[in-house]
Amino acid sequence: MKPFTTLTGIVAPLEALNVDTDQIIPKQFLKRIERTGYGPMLFFDWRYLADGVTPDPKFEMNAARYQGASILLTKDNFGCGSSREHAPWALDNYGIRCILAPSFADIFFNNCFNNGMLPIKLDGAIVEELFQEVRAQEGYQLAVDLTAQTITRPNGKTISFDVDPFKKECLLNGWDQIGLTLRHQDKIDAFEEAHGIV
User: Fold this and answer.
1) CA-CA distance, 6 to 150, in Å (whole number)?
2) Would you state the pLDDT for residue 76?
3) Runs of H (alpha helix) within 148-197
4) Residue 196 to residue 33: CA distance in whole angstroms
């Protein structure tokens, strides 16, 4: 898993409450077994017109000013619904590495950390301020520092955020569940040798 230390990137706004995982990545795309290639399918029903190809100009994230965004700004209860891990895969494949919201669905929240993404819970009033700033300034960027647990705005002001210490350590080191296990490779090898496991 790719480590997350610092990130400076364009912020894309998604002003919607209770965005569920079927809106993030619709069910018809879950037949794929790869973890890659989901970027074009992210928010599929919102991003495209009925032909499934033409970008819908009414979908704010389709605006040219938000292309290449790596930070998503959204509203309460993001990632609710089914527990599909394809949701963080789609966001990551699109280029999103950090999500800012007042609250997240628990399973989605944990799936983000397990896939090298940083979901940050912020006070609702701060989120509203950021929405205003993003729309007022084209090319609006934030700088996220996981070690310092700060978000720096273009004006230099910082926002502090909380993160679970264990999840933080895993992100900083790029440890997913497999990576955590492989830290004990010597013990695994010794166990297999002692028990004749090939």
Assistant:
1) 10
2) 98
3) 165-173, 177-182, 185-194
4) 33
Token pair recorded at residue 15: 């002003």
Please, which pLDDT band fits residue 198 given cuts at 50, 70 and 90? Answer: low
Look up the pTM and report it: 0.91
> Residue 132 carries which side chain, given as an amino acid letter?
Q
- What span, in angstroms and rounded, lies between the C-alpha atoms of 140 and 154? 7
Contact assessment for residue 139 and residue 65, using Cβ atoms and an 8 Å cutoff: yes
Angle between helices 86-94 and 106-114 (to 10 degrees): 50
* Fold exhibited by the domain 6-194: Aconitase; domain 4 (3.20.19)
- In the structure encoding, which two tokens stand for residue 122, read together? 């912020």
Tokens of 28: 């018809």
**Sequence letter at residue 177:** Q
Locate the domains of the chain by residue range: 6-194
User: What whole-number distance in Å separates Cα of residue 177 and Cα of residue 120?
Assistant: 21
